[in-house]
Design brief:
187 residues; alpha+beta; 8 strands; globular
Length: 187
């Protein structure tokens, strides 16, 4: 697998992958109306991440296998179509990095694409000074993130075109500051 930063030229094919991933990998977690509402209003590429160089593509055998990224911006989730966006940057000393918009091509599901991508994003966030990460998981994503140490909060429901779509906020400590306190032996 090869990981590289997404470019603006990649966005149309990424949008196709995201829609296909949502439609096929959400079966059993979301109904068709929920999936289509999420594709129309939330799922998709956030071009700010592409501009920042933090939205990544995984390729396998020359084929697009998945995409996702991390961000130092305040926006927790949502594509360019999502109305509730906050473009400002957060301070890594006090705020978590955002893990954003992970989607795997259905034919590459359960083959390690998401794991490789998540590790690359966490490593980059740590290198940028972050010690924790947060994300807004889709229902099919919750078990994936839990298996990688993320802790789920209470599910929320967002309403799009009159359809409720459930998401789960999650967080994880991605890097512990080294403890520099001196210990003494009182024994």
């Amino acid at each position: 697998m090869r990981i590289r930063a997404a470019t603006p030229a990649d966005i149309p094919v990424l949008e196709q992958l995201i829609a296909a991933s949502a439609r096929q990998l959400s079966i059993g977690h979301y109904g068709e109306a929920e999936t289509e509402a999420a594709i129309a209003h939330v799922f998709g590429v956030d071009s700010e991440l592409v501009e920042d160089g933090t939205y990544l593509i995984v390729e396998s055998d020359g084929r697009l296998a998945g995409c996702g990224g991390w961000s130092r911006r305040a926006t927790l989730f949502g594509s360019d179509r999502f109305a509730a966006r906050a473009s400002g940057y957060v301070d890594p000393a006090v705020a978590p990095a955002k893990i954003r918009a992970f989607f795997v091509a259905p034919e590459f599901a359960r083959r390690g694409v998401g794991t490789v991508l998540l590790q690359a994003c966490e490593d980059a966030a740590v290198a940028a000074g972050f010690t924790s990460a947060e994300l807004m998981a889709t229902l099919p994503g919750v078990p994936f993130y839990e298996a990688r140490g993320y802790v789920a909060g209470s599910a929320i429901t967002q309403i799009y075109d009159g359809v409720g779509v459930r998401f789960v906020p999650m967080h994880k400590l991605i890097h512990q500051q080294e403890d520099t306190r001196a210990y003494t032996d009182n024994g």
